[in-house]
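Quick entry between incubations.
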Amino acid sequence: MDPLFLQHTSDGILTGAIIALGAIGVTLSMTILRFANFGHSELVTFGAYIALVFVSFSGIGAQPIDPFSIGWPFFAAIAAAGVGTALLALATDWLIFRRLRRSNAARLTFIFASFGAALILRNLIMLGFGASPEYYSRELTMAILIPPGIRVMPDQILVLGLTLVLVVALWAFLTFTRAGLAMRAVAESPTLSSVSGIDVNSVTRWTWILSGGLAAMAGVFFGLTVQLRPEMGFNLLLPLFAAAILGGAGSVFGAVVGGLIVGLAENLSVIWISPGYKMAIPFLLMLVLLYLRPHGLFGRGER
Amino acid sequence: MSAPVLTISNLVAGYVPDVPIVRGASLNVIPGSILTVLGPNGAGKSTLVKAIAGLVPVTSGTVMLDGKDVTSTPAHAVAGLGIGYVPQTENVFTTLSVVDNLKVSGSPSASDTRMAIERMFVLFPDLAERRRHLGRELSGGQRQMLAFARALMRSPRVLMPDEPSAGLSPKMVGIVFEKLQELAATGVAVLMVEQNAKAALRASDRGLVLVEGKERLEGPARQLLDDPRLGELYLGKIDEAA
Ligand SMILES: Nc1ncnc2c1ncn2[C@@H]1O[C@H](COP(=O)(O)OP(=O)(O)OP(=O)(O)O)[C@@H](O)[C@H]1O
Ligand SMILES: [Mg+2]
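Done. Structure below.
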């Protein structure tokens, strides 16, 4: 097979995995919190920068682990980013969305509020870190050559592996734990959930924690394999929503598949069309699929 | 006759402020007995049980469970305190399996929940056979049984089904009412809302007719069955009956 095609496929899978992590949070908030959270992209950015702060404080003396560009403190930075971003997500809920829920605000109000929150968060990052790109590590690493000619960076393989672990862990959480089951119940019906003894407020908090944590992972992984920029999350916004909608709102599995499709399509498109149009690919995919399957690949539209 | 387990006094409740739907309703439910709430469409029957369940804001009046004031308690806490509400529609999780429907409705203790699930499978053998089926894959009758089982997971003192016979075949209606009598025989108090007045009263101990959010007629079920005022209240001849 054409090595160029294979290279773009491999890059597409990596992009897709990162998009998938973000899209899971989008799909969870769409079905459990019941609004399209446009602030989700900024959780991605915040996660990436929290890890940067952590790395720059602890980075000195941290030997990279061969063949990766990063050392052990980086794993602590990942954890810090996850926890910090989950707390940020909870804080935005507490400050903004909880109040809107209390006053029974319209769905559109939630969406606009999330736009506002996104704007504030993005500018805070801009203020704190400036507009120029940042990197976790300036270490040079050797690409691994996979015949017939695909180049993969060791960091990319690490990111793929960690993504796989996170997705499996999330699946197990939703399938086997009581909290996960309660999240699926609230996604279907908050009213029936509450009369079944489920505290919907606590499920709401869990949802923010999970989607914030996963957004942070997406941000850190993007920062590690590409770079950090204040608008990195914003640029991922469309792909994240395209992936979540492609997969079918509410389906975690769908979000993962949707993420991979969007990532692959974006990367493979450059073989045939100018990279300038790459950004439009998720849109195009979303339009075509919604025409064919209005509820997404794995969504069910009878609620 | 034993003391009531659920006492509603002068309850006023509604969906929006200043529009009371339940307007000063009072009733008692006794352990091991079935009280059926009848009444014309829009009388506020569903709103009454929803208000007891904590789903509709209460403006005044009280809901006492076992002598404890539970008025305006959040719905999830009401479920934990021992009131099992079965909504008329959307009363099972269609996207969860039968077992998960029960598991998610159980108490926080995993071992209690496991035991409760086993009890439900004894009580409803049909569900045991379909434990891996999704809620949406069940027939109407099975669905109603799952809705009961869901509400019974916390061993409630009071079960409140809203129109449990709606949409079921006549044979299934009989089975559902028999099940409720069987449950009442174990000591559960049943507060049921029904449209199917004759069949429901035959299965009940007492009946109550709610009109415009207030009880207008209350008494032993057998007596109500023969009471001409029952039909009149349904036809809206409220003033003459008053
Ligand atoms: N969610 C709601 N929001 C606002 N008003 C409501 C709501 N649900 C019901 N109502 C109003 O409350 C009144 C009583 O409704 P309710 O459902 O309690 O009657 P019901 O006695 O159960 O009638 P039915 O026999 O048709 O089930 C009706 O006028 C109805 O329009
Ligand atoms: Mg009703």
